[in-house]
Design goal:
5 helices; alpha+beta; 7 strands; 7-stranded antiparallel β-sheet
Length: 169
């Protein structure tokens, strides 16, 4: 897929992990695991609330480089070890959706779909994301920072890889 097609269709990242898909899925499904690897490298994540079920929410705080940011996952669809769909937003300390801390009109809500496929002990994680309930200007901003999002998720998935290595011994 070329860069222009990717930008029209939204974010898509594919990453392989040397771990069974149940273990990869479980890294999303427990607050202790999630806090160990989610977010930018060098940040500290604490989970304020965690309700991992369709209709549930996870509210978390990230601290790093002298900044504090809050995030919110609103779970839409969960199929154990196969699929996770959620809406991700920036939030305040009370869990209300807020505008991003960046100096741009970033979308308030991003729909994410994660699929997991396992073959010979290798799990392929595919994440796809796109803005929802966004203005055209917000959609353009989202697409304009696609490279930064790839880098951010790359670092996050590096941390997931390290976490999976640790729990597998």
């Amino acid at each position: 897929m070329d860069q222009q097609t990717e930008k029209r269709e939204g974010l898509k990242i594919v990453r392989e992990f040397k771990a069974p898909k149940t273990l990869v899925f479980d890294a999303f499904a427990s607050p202790e695991a999630f806090a160990e690897w989610w977010g930018p490298s060098g940040s500290k994540l604490s989970v304020e609330s965690f309700d991992f079920r369709p209709g549930g929410k996870t509210h978390y705080k990230m601290e790093g480089n002298g900044h504090v940011m809050w995030g919110l996952f609103q779970y839409q669809n969960i199929q154990r070890a196969d699929l996770l769909e959620f809406i991700n937003s920036f939030a305040d300390a009370e869990g209300n959706i807020i505008t991003s801390p960046f100096p741009m009109d970033f979308p308030l809500e991003i729909f994410n779909r994660i699929t997991l496929e396992e073959n010979n002990g290798i799990t392929t994680l595919t994440i796809q994301g796109h803005p929802i309930n966004a203005t055209q200007a917000q959609i353009e901003i989202y697409h304009s920072i696609m490279d930064s999002m790839h880098q951010g998720f790359g670092g996050t998935f590096d941390q997931l890889e390290a976490y999976l290595g640790k729990v597998q011994g």
